[in-house]
Specification:
Blueprint: E1 10-14, H1 17-30, E2 33-37, E3 47-50, H2 54-61, E4 67-71, H3 74-81, E5 93-97, E6 103-108, H4 115-126, E7 129-131, H5 135-138, E8 154-158, H6 160-168, E9 173-177, H7 186-189, E10 194-197, E11 209-213, E12 228-232, E13 236-242, H8 248-261, E14 269-275, H9 282-291, E15 295-298, H10 300-304, H11 313-319, H12 325-335, E16 341-352, E17 355-364, E18 374-379, H13 390-398, E19 401-403, H14 406-411, E20 421-423, H15 430-443, E21 446-451, H16 460-470, E22 479-483, H17 488-496, E23 497-498, E24 504-508, H18 516-528, E25 532-536, H19 546-557, E26 563-568, E27 576-581, E28 594-598, E29 604-606, E30 609-611, H20 616-622
Parallel strand pairs: 1-2, 1-4, 2-3, 4-5, 6-7, 9-10, 9-11, 11-12, 13-14, 14-15, 18-21, 18-22, 19-20, 19-21, 23-30, 24-25
Antiparallel strand pairs: 5-6, 8-12, 13-17, 16-17, 25-28, 26-27, 26-28, 29-30
Helix pairs in contact: 4-13, 8-9, 15-16, 18-19
The structure holds S-adenosyl-L-homocysteine.
Length: 623
C-alpha cells in the first residue's frame, strides 16, 4: 500500500561506537530502533542489542521493517543483505551511511521501497551528501513505477522494466493520457524525450515505448515489439441497484460484463454507489471489501434530484426516486469535487436466473485518491537549511505537493524530490495559494504550505485555516498539523545578542491588511509600555513613511540613544547587520527583508552585542 509517509518502522544498525553515536539522533528523529553489538554499552532504553552473528539478526528483522539504515562499509552491507533480497516491490529500503556521516547512500529499494526519499531526508539531517544512483533521479524524474501513487492510480500490467530502460537511455517515450491529473507532468515536460498525446492522436512513429494513463483497457500489445505500460486513474463511479440478496458472484460478474462490453478497466473504479436501502446488500459489500473500494449510499430524496437520461416511472413509484444506478453514479462522481462528470455507460441490466443487477458508470474528471489528505503548515525558519526543525524537514520530505512563495521555495529546493508537485504562486496571490492548498488536501494529497520563519506569524498559516473553515465538508476531513519555525525576531535577535531578554512584542508596519490607525495605536502602546519591539515589514518600495512615523512615536517615550538593530536577511547568504540607535536608524538601508529591533530603556551595547538585562524589575525593586 502506497504511503507518502517516510518509512516506518525503521531499524538502524551500527557496529562501532562512532557509528552508533551517529545513528542515535537519527533514530530519535525517525522513531527508529538502533541495534548495537553486545560488546558496546547501550546508549539508552530505546537501543537494543543485536545477537551475533549480524547476518542471522538481519534475517529476523529484514521483513519486519520498511527501512534498514546501516552505518557500515557498503561492501559489508551488500554481502549481509544479498541472501535476503527478494523483489523490489517487497524488500525494505536499504540505506548506508559512512562512519563520518559525509555520505548517505540509497543502496536498494530506491523507488518503491522509498529509499531515495529517506536518503535525502537523512542527508539533510546530517548535512551530508545524498548518493542516489537511480537514473530517474539523475534525470530529475519521479520513478515511472511510482508516478501515479500520490494520485491513487493503480498500476497495471506491461513491460515496466523495458519502459524504464528506454527512459534511462533517453529514448523517445510517448505518454498517452486520457484521464487523471496532469500535475505530475511538470518534470516530464522539461524533458524533450517525452511526447504527450491524447488517445485519438496517432502514435508517434519515433517512440520506442508507451506509457498509457487511462480508465480504458488498452491492448498492451498493439505493437508487439514496443514496450507499453499502463496506469489507471480511479475515475469511474459505478451506480448499482440489485434484487435483494444478489450474490457476490452475480455482482462481480455483472460489473465485469459491463466493463468488458465497454472496454473499461476495473482497476479504474473509484467507488460504488447506491441508494440507502442497499446499505447492507451483502454481495455489494463483499465486492467492495475484496476490491478495496468505498461504498456510498444516498437517500431517495438526494437521488431523485439528480437529472438522469433514463428515469423510470416504476422505480419512482416503488422507491420514491426515478433512478438508482444512473443517479448514484452521477451523484457519487460529483460528490467530492466539482468536476465535469460524464455518464459513460447508461443503466445496463444484467440478469441471472431470478436475480438482476443494474449498473451505470459515470466518469469524473478528477480521480479519487482514496486517502485522507494532509494539510501541514510548515515554518522553514529564516533562510538557511540548518535552521529548519527536523520535524519540518520530514514533513517536506513526505509531501506530495508543496505550496509557497517562490523565494522561500528556492531556499529549500535541495530538500525536494523529483515528482513532488511544487506550486509557486506569486506573493500577491496569497488567497489563491491558500485555497489551492486546501483543495489539494481535501482531494487526498499530502500538502505542505511553506512560510518563512514561523507559519503562524504574519504568514500563510492563518489564511489557510480560514479557508479551510469556509470549505468544510463532512466527508473531506483532513489531517492538519502545524510545524513551528524560528521567526524573524528570534533569528534577528540571535545575530546581535540577547535583545529579547525581557518583555517584547512584534508589530508589523504593513497596512495592507491592518488599518494604519490600529498600527499607530500599537506602536504607541509598545513604546509607552517599554517593550523591546521587533518591527516586521518595516518598509517597502511604496510604503516608506510608516517607519518614519514609528521611529517618531518611539522617540516620544524612549531615549534617542536606545540601541536599535537592523537585521537584513538573517541566516541567508546576503545577511547584513547594522547596530545603531533610535536617533540614527533612518540613515541606514531598511527594506522588506529587514527586521528592526528596538531596545527597551535598559538595553545596552557591549562590543558588537545588544543586551537587554534580564533583571529589569528585580534590580529596580532591590533599590
Ligand atoms: N513568517 C515570517 C514573517 C513574515 S513577514 C516569520 O515568522 O519570520 C515578513 C517580514 O519578516 C519581513 O518584512 C521582515 O521584516 C521579516 N523577515 C523575514 N525573514 C527575515 C530574515 N531572514 N531576516 C530579517 N527579517 C526577516
Amino acid at each position: 500500500m502506497y504511503s507518502s509517509n517516510i518509512l516506518y518502522p525503521v531499524a538502524m544498525i551500527g557496529t562501532t561506537n562512532q557509528a552508533c553515536s551517529l545513528l542515535h539522533p537519527l533514530c530519535q528523529d525517525l522513531r527508529g530502533i538502533l541495534y548495537m553489538p553486545e560488546k558496546l554499552p547501550l546508549i539508552d532504553e530505546k537501543t537494543l542489542y543485536y545477537h551475533s552473528p549480524l547476518k542471522n539478526h538481519l534475517a529476523d528483522i529484514f521483513l519486519k521493517n520498511r527501512a534498514l539504515v546501516f552505518c557500515l562499509a557498503a561492501g559489508a552491507v551488500v554481502r549481509l543483505i544479498a541472501p535476503l533480497l527478494k523483489s523490489k516491490t517487497h524488500d525494505p529500503a536499504i540505506i548506508v551511511i559512512d562512519p563520518e556521516g559525509k555520505f548517505v547512500i540509497s543502496l536498494c529499494g530506491g523507488h518503491q521501497g522509498g529509499a531515495d526519499k529517506l536518503t535525502k531526508l537523512i542527508a539533510s539531517y546530517l548535512n551530508a551528501e545524498p548518493v542516489i544512483t537511480g537514473v530517474s533521479n539523475t534525470l530529475n524524474l519521479p520513478g515511472i513505477d511510482i508516478l501515479g501513487f500520490p494520485f491513487g492510480w493503480r498500476r497495471g500490467a506491461g513491460k515496466w522494466k523495458d519502459v524504464s530502460y528506454a527512459i534511462a537511455c533517453q529514448k523517445t517515450v510517448q505518454i498517452i493520457q486520457e484521464g487523471g491529473s496532469f500535475l505530475w507532468r511538470k518534470n516530464f515536460l522539461n524533458n524533450y524525450n517525452f511526447k504527450f498525446s491524447l488517445p485519438d492522436i496517432k502514435r508517434d512513429q519515433k517512440s520506442t515505448s508507451y506509457i498509457i494513463i487511462s480508465h480504458r483497457k488498452y491492448p498492451l500489445d498493439t505493437k508487439a515489439d514496443i514496450p507499453t505500460i499502463q496506469w489507471y486513474p480511479r475515475v469511474l463511479w459505478i451506480g448499482i441497484g440489485s434484487t435483494r440478496g444478489a450474490s457476490y458472484k452475480l455482482i462481480s460478474d455483472a460489473i465485469s460484463t459491463v466493463f468488458d462490453q465497454h472496454g473499461l478497466a476495473p482497476e479504474a473504479i473509484a467507488g460504488i454507489a447506491s441508494v440507502d436501502l442497499k446499505k447492507d446488500e451483502i454481495g455489494i459489500i463483499k465486492y467492495c471489501q475484496i476490491k478495496q473500494l468505498p461504498f456510498f449510499t444516498y437517500s431517495v430524496n438526494t437521488l431523485d434530484k439528480v437529472s438522469v437520461p433514463n428515469p423510470s416511472a416504476i422505480v419512482k413509484q416503488e422507491l420514491g426516486t426515478a433512478s438508482v444506478a444512473e443517479a448514484a453514479a452521477i451523484y457519487s462522481s460529483n460528490y467530492f469535487f466539482n468536476n465535469d462528470t460524464v455518464l459513460l455507460v447508461s443503466k445496463q441490466i444484467v440478469k441471472f436466473e431470478d436475480q438482476a443487477v443494474t449498473i451505470a458508470i459515470a466518469q469524473s474528471s478528477t480521480e479519487y485518491i482514496g486517502r485522507k489528505g494532509k494539510l501541514y503548515l510548515v515554518g522553514i525558519g529564516p533562510g538557511s537549511l540548518d535552521q529548519i526543525t527536523p520535524a519540518a524537514k520530514k514533513a517536506i520530505a513526505e509531501a506530495d505537493a508543496i505550496v509557497g512563495y517562490s523565494l522561500y521555495l528556492d531556499l529549500i529546493k535541495s530538500l525536494f524530490h523529483p515528482g513532488q508537485i511544487i506550486e509557486d504562486l506569486p506573493i500577491t496571490e496569497e488567497e489563491k495559494r491558500a485555497e489551492r492548498s486546501v483543495e489539494l488536501a481535501q482531494w487526498g494529497l499530502n500538502v505542505v504550505v511553506i512560510s518563512s520563519g514561523d507559519c503562524g506569524i504574519y504568514a500563510m498559516g492563518g489564511l489557510v485555516l480560514e479557508k479551510l473553515k469556509n470549505t468544510y465538508k463532512k466527508d473531506n476531513i483532513i489531517d492538519i498539523k502545524i510545524f513551528p519555525g524560528i521567526t524573524a525576531l528570534q533569528a534577528a535577535a540571535a545575530r546581535v545578542g540577547t535583545p529579547l531578554m525581557h518583555d517584547f512584542c512584534a508589530i508589523s508596519l504593513s497596512d495592507l491588511l491592518t488599518p494604519w490607525s490600529v498600527i499607530k495605536k500599537r506602536l504607541k502602546a509598545a513604546a509607552q509600555g517599554d517593550f523591546v519591539t521587533a518591527i516586521y515589514n518595516p518598509k517597502s518600495k511604496t510604503r516608506t513613511h510608516q517607519i518614519i512615523v514609528a521611529r517618531a512615536i518611539f522617540l516620544k517615550y524612549r531615549d534617542p540613544n536606545t540601541p536599535v538593530a537592523l537585521v537584513r536577511c538573517a541566516y541567508r547568504k546576503n545577511e547584513t547587520i547594522v547596530l545603531t540607535t533610535l536617533n540614527e536608524m533612518l540613515g541606514y538601508y531598511i527594506d522588506m527583508l529587514t527586521t528592526v529591533l528596538i531596545g527597551n530603556h535598559s538595553t545596552f551595547f557591549y562590543k558588537d552585542l545588544v543586551i537587554t538585562p534580564r533583571g529589569y524589575h528585580h534590580k529596580k525593586m532591590q533599590k
